[in-house]
Amino acid sequence: GNSVTQMEGPVTLSEEAFLTINCTYTATGYPSLFWYVQYPGEGLQLLLKATKADDKGSNKGFEATYRKETTSFHLEKGSVQVSDSAVYFCALIKSGGSYIPTFGRGTSLIVHP
Amino acid sequence: NAGVTQTPKFQVLKTGQSMTLQCAQDMNHNSMYWYRQDPGMGLRLIYYSASEGTTDKGEVPNGYNVSRLNKREFSLRLESAAPSQTSVYFCASSEAPWARVMNTEAFFGQGTRLTVV
Question: What is the DSSP string of B46-73?
Answer without folding.
Answer: EEEESSTT--EE-S--TTEEEEE-SSSB
